[in-house]
Amino acid sequence: MATTADMSRGLIIKVDGILYSVVEFGQNKTARAAAKVWAKLKGLDNGRTIELTWNSGETIYPVRVEKKPYQFLYKDEGGYNFMDTENFEQIVLADTMIDAPQFLKDGQEVVVSINTETDLPMSVELPDKIVVLVTYSEPGVKGDTATRTLKAATVETGATVMVPLFVNEGELIRVNTKTGDYVERVKEA
């Protein structure tokens, strides 16, 4: 068994039969009382965020998670379809299990976290940054560059990203999938 000393970001633990991912954690020490360990947890099945506190050295119940590469195939009424790149098995997942479904492109590589106890998928992670094509954007006003003014642009996946005025329709941009923010313009190779 693991203790609170083994706590780390991204660790999956079981609390009251529900799986949570550790988002943030820390330790509170006072002169009179024993040290306490606190953690901000995000539910993997419901997305709910909670905070818990344990006495230092208390037992926690981590779940072993295996991360496997999958490829996004398509979306239909059943959900999002992914294929294992090693054995070509396909799985269908709901959008609640995907960290940024609005940025999924056909053929894109993702990482699927699988609970080794039940062999069921738990979540889908996209790469931190992806390159997408701007399909629609209003033209920028020439000379309006004194401030960091942003405009809305629609990308090939259908998502809307706020971009600087100099980004035009038909250009490739890099987007941070965790925040949905524009990172940079990409030169075509």
Short description:
By secondary structure, the chain is mainly β. The protein is 0% helix and 52% strand.
Detail the topology: elements first, then pairings.
Elements: E1 2-3, E2 12-15, E3 18-28, E4 36-43, E5 49-55, E6 59-60, E7 65-76, E8 79-84, E9 90-93, E10 109-115, E11 120-125, E12 129-137, E13 150-155, E14 160-164, E15 172-176, E16 182-186
Task: Describe the protein.
By secondary structure, the protein is an all-beta fold. The protein folds into three domains: 2-60, Roll (SH3 type barrels); 65-125, Beta Barrel (OB fold (Dihydrolipoamide Acetyltransferase, E2P)), CATH 2.40.50; 129-186, Nucleic acid-binding proteins (OB fold (Dihydrolipoamide Acetyltransferase, E2P), Beta Barrel), CATH 2.40.50.140. 0% of the residues lie in helices and 52% in strands. The protein has no helices and 16 strands. The protein has strands at 2-3, 12-15, 18-28, 36-43, 49-55, 59-60, 65-76, 79-84, 90-93, 109-115, 120-125, 129-137, 150-155, 160-164, 172-176, 182-186. It has a five-stranded antiparallel β-sheet with strand order 9-8-7-10-11, with no helix packed on it. The protein has a five-stranded antiparallel β-sheet with strand order 14-13-12-15-16, with no helix packed on it. The N and C termini lie far apart (51 Å). The model has no long low-confidence stretch (mean pLDDT 86).
Give the oligomer, counting copies of the same chain as homo and different chains as hetero. Answer: single chain
Q: Can you give the helix content as a percent range?
A: under 10%
CATH superfamily of the largest domain: Nucleic acid-binding proteins
Order of helices and strands: EEEEEEEEEEEEEEEE
Distance between the termini: 51 Å
> What is the number of helical segments per DSSP (H or I, 4+ residues)?
0
Instruction: Give the rounded overall mean pLDDT.
Output: 86
Q: What is the number of beta strands?
A: 16
- What does the radius of gyration come to? 21 Å
Output the CATH topology of the largest domain. OB fold (Dihydrolipoamide Acetyltransferase, E2P)
